[in-house]
Amino acid sequence: MRCGVDIIEISRIARAYRRRPQLFMKRFFTAEEQAQLAGRKHVEKHLAARFAGKEAVAKLLGTGIGSIGWREVEILTLAGGQPVVNLHGRAASRAKELCLGQISISLSHAREYAVAQAVAAILTEL
User: Fold this and answer.
1) What is the pLDDT of residues 83-125, one digit of tens each?
2) Residue 6 counted as an annotated binding residue
3) Where are the alpha helices (DSSP H) in the chain?
4) Distance between CA 19 and CA 84 in Å, rounded?
5) Domains of the chain as residue ranges with CATH
6) Helix (H, G, I), strand (E, B), or coil: what is residue 107?
7) pTM
8) I need a labelling partner for 43 at 20 to 30 A (CA). Which of 5, 15, 50, 53 fits?
9) What does the DSSP 8-state code read for residue 81?
């Protein structure tokens, strides 16, 4: 198993988002993520949770953000509310290199903080 966890202050993300909302969204989120987040109530909490989620996945991959791009880790929400991780580019290559199965992610937020944990099994041949 591999895991990654991250926690972030919602106010930090809110400040960055309010300064330049369009630039912030374009830099950190894919078009599909942006579409899902558009019009959400308390958008800053959801942005912070996904931001923490991307960091948690990068830690799981053992790279941290920098070796992989923010939009190479995509976190979408299924119809039932479950978050799902899609990897692209270098993030997908790294997951393949590590022989990882599907990444599971849990996102949560309270008044001041958002937290995320990502886990994945290492697949081995029997």
Assistant:
1) 999 999 999 999 999 999 999 999 999 999 999 999 999 998 5
2) yes
3) 10-19, 21-28, 31-37, 43-60, 89-97
4) 28
5) 2-120 (3.90.470.20)
6) strand
7) 0.94
8) 5
9) S
